[in-house]
Amino acid sequence: MRRKKLTPLIFIVLAAAGSLTAVLVSDTSPQLGLDLQGGVSVVLQPTEAASDEALSQAREIIRSRVDALGVAEPEIVRQGDSIVVQLPGVKNQQRAIELVGDTAELRFRPVLLMIPGSLDDLSSTTTTATGETTTTVAGATTTTATGATTTSAPVSGQSAVGGATPYQDPSSTTTTAVGATTTTTAAAGEPAPAIELTPREDDVPEATVLLEEVDADGQAVNTYQLGPAGATGRIVKTARAELDQSGQWGVALEIKGGDGIDTFNALAAECFSKAQTCPTGQLAIVLDSEVQSAPNIQQPSFEADQIQISGSFTESEAKDLALVLRYGSLPVTLEAQTVQTVSPTLGEDSLRAGLAAGLLGLALVCLYMILYYRALGVVVVLGLCVWSSLLYAIISKLGVALSLAGVTGIVVSVGVTVDSYVVYFERLKDELRAGRTLRSSTERAFTRAFRTILAADISSFIGAALLFTLTVGPVRGFAFFLGISTILDVVVAWFFTRPMVGLLASSRVFTNAPRLGVARGLDASRTPVASPAGAGR
Amino acid sequence: MTSPVQERRSIFTRLYHGETQIRFVRSFKKWAVVSGIVIVIGLLSLWQRGLNLGIDFEGGVVWEVPAGDVSVTDAQDAMEAEGLEGLSVQTLTADGETRLRVKAEPLDTVAEAQGITDKLAELTGSEANDVSLNSVGPSWGEEISRKALRALVFFLIAITIYITFRFELRMAIPTLVALIHDVLVTVGVYSLAGFEVTPATVIAILTILGFSIYDGIVVFDKVDENTKLVGTGNSMSYSDMVDLSLNQVLMRSLNTSITALLPVASLLILGSFILGATTLQEFALALLIGLFAGAYSSIFIASPLLALLKEREPRYRELKARLAGRQSAVRTPAAVATTAVGDDDAVTTSAGPAPALSGRAIPPRPRKKGRKR
Predict the structure, then answer these.
(1) pTM value surpassing 0.90
(2) 3-state DSSP call for residue A142?
(3) Which residue intervals of A43-133 are DSSP H helices?
(4) Which of A52, A375, A419, A524 is most exposed by smallest CB count within 10 Å?
């Protein structure tokens, strides 16, 4: 029977030690929140009522913008109709704030030039060995060895460009010296123009821009040179993804009547006829400086409600495009309701304060318990060790950001956890006073005390759950960590405390030690257990 | 709890053994009056002065930056020149470093706030990234306040339902009363002292409520258990039983309060020492007062109220009457060796036995009202 009683104890100690080791070894540590790490937090709300879908799209837009900032663990979530953006550890806080709040616009731009792949593929360096032939693309640098041949070609476009070459081909020059190695440079007298994508600030409707189309993984599919925007998303009435007769996914686009369709047809005419302004015949759909799609225009003019965009779309690609078009018709203007920046030093200070205080608090509590309950106090210390290892492992695994309020929640729950020990030990005292021996009381007392502990922990948990659902911001973090710690308290009480105290009680050494023994701690020796009680008994 | 040391020692020993015989239920009216006065003062202050709401509830902008060599007056002048409204500039010192804290009313755009950030950085010779900014729009602040209040109300309702379910309605009502009492006391303190109300305050109040509930459950659990002792066989009325239960759990209650307080206190002391934030210090004081109010309300308000409510039930009412009638006719053994301190609700030292758990023992009876002075 002894062994059976010890099983839960062994189980939980192993669990605690195991999970702690696992977490330490795998180098996982609790994700730190903004106020402990420094960073930026912005809460955005739409200025007018916006649909659910539009808000989700807005969130996606912000997400792709934030990706460019290189933040380690950005968090962009929707809470009701607000979008909460948290960027812990972001380097340039000012830029981040500007970036996040901008309204994204959908634009239709004619495609001037299409380059497969990304710009990086373009500006590669090739070294040619003797006797080899290399074909280089414009702008590339080639080092040619003696006797080698290099052919430079202009940037290949979709089709032969009739007449206009708006794109400045930086032609590369190859110089081959007899017996010497040469490095090629750009056209004599001119430095090679740096080819870069147009930055967001410069992406204005009137400008000619160079933008990318990316796939779902963020890899560049094509790079486009685009002319000034002929129309914005406001001409769009709606769009939806649908299957056409051949079983292919496509997007049905509906343009608003009147000015809307006129503008669109003007663009269509240009592209269909492959005019100078739209030499490739493609019309790009651009959202937030990213090309979403660049279909070929196959008719000179369209009916407002009979525009089909087809291509080798998968279902999700078609649906995404339709969503983008719908969003474009009524883009959401977001207003920053709260902006919070925390400097890294302040974050570090807060973390230090929280940790130091937490540890000090734990130490004080343990000291008090040992002073008051003697050997039983040791159970508290050990129990707290088990409890904190489990808590640490869980928090690290869960990956929920720990804020200062969260630390407060944990500290409060230390109090709650220790309270459950007090309840149990006092109950033990009661049993002893009633005349039982220590050994026989532990089980009884625990069963009785556990009811109280459970009731109290349940109320704590109800409170935490309620708060979590009803509030935003720091109080939410507080509630979350309080809730988790409360559950752990119940687990530890059941699996650890009960067998542990039983173990101590059945050991004569521990029970009867003069100053530190359990009995002394519960004041069992002093209490007149069997003495006459005087009048009334 | 604030009695001089000598008296305390003897009370302490008795506390330790659960042998105190304080008559809580009897003195309920007195404590209710004390609480009532405290709450009324708080409410008056609330009405007249209102609450000092932080920017999270009211909206506003706060910047914090290492002060460098800039003095408060310089900073104030510089900020006034920017045309900030509702301006307040203070310094915080912590860990050897001085920080400037500038507070103002909400600005129209985020860009304006960032402009001030740059100015402050320039002024103090720091980087823009070293400036901490917290800007809250007024409508957002209102929404947060609403949500916080709503959460509080729902919390109270949920707890009441749970206690009704776990124990009974007559226990849930006193708990609710105690909780409302705690909230009012804490809010009153905040209003009187002019502390800033921030989300940290909300957390403090919730912590206080949490512990008050915990305390309450510990007491009511004991009362629940002792209910079977009530009856003519033991000559115990419901009120007597409640008194007994309270005396038995007094030490437990104190202990839970102490263990709850220690970690929180260290968080606040160390925290404010390292961070130097006045907010944490205010939070500390509020939490201390609140926890004390919580412990006090579970014992002096909730339980006596429970007894009073229960004794409206016919069976308990009759029992009390019967016992009172019997009492005045018979001299009680407990009349031997009682030392009163002159008050009706004094702690009586008795030669009788300690209150015991077993149903066999008859606990020493507190002096009845029927006894003529």
Answers:
(1) no
(2) strand
(3) 52-67, 93-101, 119-122
(4) A52
